[in-house]
Design brief:
single chain, alpha/beta, Aspartate Aminotransferase, domain 1, Helix Hairpins, Aspartate Aminotransferase, domain 2, 3 domains, 7-stranded mixed β-sheet, 18 helices, 14 strands, globular, binds ligand DCS
């Protein structure tokens, strides 16, 4: 078998997540004794698994597309009582764009009309033109990232700069394609900031060692760190990529999960690039930006929808990317429909406009409150410090573990933070991911938790974790 597959690690659904599934099965079957009644999966940003409601308008349109019989003349009266007029109109429009059926393969790059919706969305978001022919619809952002990393890898000397901590899709895919990850560390003390001088040194050293560094991955807002870059920093990153001839891979899937929008709004790399004082950068820098229906207030991650936009790529390279997309035939059409809705939600004056915004606002406000509450809970724990989440769906607290806990972990052949998370799962039913799954500064320990458990259970969730932490310290000091 392919030895690279053996090297792939993906902690978000790693050993602890597997153990949590087993505990859930045991609880359902009434087997074994646990000091809790339910398992809470905070290991994965999976909002609807933790009961986040889907956006009504999106599901209305999706269901009409799924069952086009409802759009026939003889059902019109009935359906108009159940569905708002804009959902019906939108479903008709989508079906006209998609073709006779959503059960058919679409264009490999994604339905042209949906790519136009994405392009319009990008133009409105950034104030700069976007070309549908450079937009690729994908199965979540994941498959886009995999496509690009595969494209960029020539051999095992190919180096890709990835942040540490990072979302392990990147390290896993680099293992799979046999490229060399070139890690750069985010600085926790300064809110997980990115230091350009440090990047320069890392690239120089890697190149001195014969690594052909080709691209820089930036996750903004950050996963697992929740940082959100400011415009000065972004400008410097763009200058750096241009000087070093690096492709910039901008993972912007959390672009609407922004919790301090006044002081730290989301700025896309496309916008920052187009408005860079050095005009050559807007014309020359190869930028790919990724987005997804999985995150934000949408959370439709099981539908697998997303897109990437290519800027300044040579058309010959684009041809190769198109070829790769066509080998997979097409991204699934259900996901494409949601991409269309994400990028073209109801507009002012549409019947669903108010209710759509009310739903989005409610989810957003609640996420924001939960992020603050969990951050506060972590910071109140002995030996724990936690940077605020300016964006994303996660907190990544640093934990200082007593010697006894570190020794116990060693005996068990576990990393100390994995031991801590294991004990947490067994004591509380809460499943989180050890920092070692994302990478961390040597000698520091962290874990990542989502703040997605439902709000009415959130106080209990926080106090459960606090109680566990106190007990863990007592038992291991
Ligand atoms: N990029 C980042 C930064 C992510 O966090 C994720 C998913 C993806 C890309 C890919 O998502 P989709 O393929 O669904 O678009 N985040 C995972 C995580 O850390 N928890 O849940 C999934």
């Amino acid at each position: 078998m392919n030895p690279y597959i053996r090297n792939v690690e993906y902690a978000v659904r790693g050993k602890l997540a597997i153990r949590s599934d087993q505990i859930r099965e045991d609880l359902e079957a009434g087997v074994g004794e646990f000091p809790f009644k339910t398992v809470v999966n905070c290991n994965i940003g999976n909002p609807q698994q933790l009961n986040q409601k889907p956006i009504t308008f999106f599901r209305q349109v999706a269901s009409l597309c799924e069952n086009p019989e409802l759009l026939s003349e003889d059902k019109a009266h009935l359906v108009s009582q159940l569905y708002p007029a804009d959902a019906i109109a939108r479903a008709k429009k989508l079906l006209a764009m998609i073709g006779p059926s959503i059960g058919a393969y679409s264009h490999s790059q994604g339905v042209p009309g949906i790519r136009q919706t994405v392009a319009r969305f990008l133009e409105e978001r950034d104030g700069h033109p976007a070309d549908p022919s450079t937009i690729y619809l994908t199965q979540g952002a994941s498959s886009g990232v995999q496509t690009l990393l595969t494209l960029l890898t020539q051999n095992d000397k190919t180096g890709i700069l990835i942040p540490i901590p990072q979302y392990p899709l990147y390290s896993a895919t680099l293992s799979l394609v046999g490229a060399t990850p070139v890690p750069y560390y985010l600085d926790e003390e300064s809110g997980w900031s990115l230091d350009i001088d440090n990047l320069k040194t890392i690239v120089r050293e890697a190149r001195d060692q014969g690594v052909d560094v080709r691209a820089l991955v930036i996750i903004n807002p950050g996963n697992p760190t929740g940082q959100c870059l400011d415009s000065d920093n972004m400008r410097d990153i763009l200058t750096f990529c241009h000087e070093q001839r690096l492709v910039l891979l901008a993972d912007e899937v959390y672009q609407t999960n922004i919790y301090e929008p006044e002081c730290r709004p989301f700025i896309s790399f496309k916008k920052a690039m187009m408005e860079h004082p050095n005009k050559k950068i807007a014309q020359q820098l190869e930028l790919v930006s990724f987005h997804s229906i999985s995150k934000g207030m949408i959370g439709e991650c099981g539908r697998r929808g997303g897109y990437f936009e290519l800027c300044n790529f040579d058309y010959k390279v684009e041809e190769q990317i198109y070829k790769m997309a066509s080998v997979s035939l097409c991204p699934n059409v259900h996901g494409q429909i949601l991409v269309d809705l994400m990028c073209g939600p109801p507009r002012q004056g549409d019947p669903s406009y108010e209710s759509y915004h009310a739903e989005v606002r409610e989810i957003y406000e609640s996420l924001r409150r939960r992020s603050k509450k969990l951050e506060k809970a972590f910071n109140s724990m002995e030996g724990v410090t936690c940077q605020p989440a300016l964006g994303s769906m996660y907190l990544f607290p640093r934990i200082r573990l007593p010697e006894k806990a570190i020794a116990k972990a060693k005996q068990l052949g576990m990393a100390p933070d994995a031991f801590y998370c294991h004990e947490m799962l067994e004591a509380t039913g809460v499943c989180v991911v050890p920092g070692s799954g994302f990478g961390q500064e040597h000698g520091t320990w962290h874990f990542r938790s989502t703040f997605l458990p439902p709000e009415h259970l959130f106080d209990d969730f926080c106090s459960n974790l606090q109680r566990f932490h106190d007990n863990f310290l007592k038992e291991n000091s």
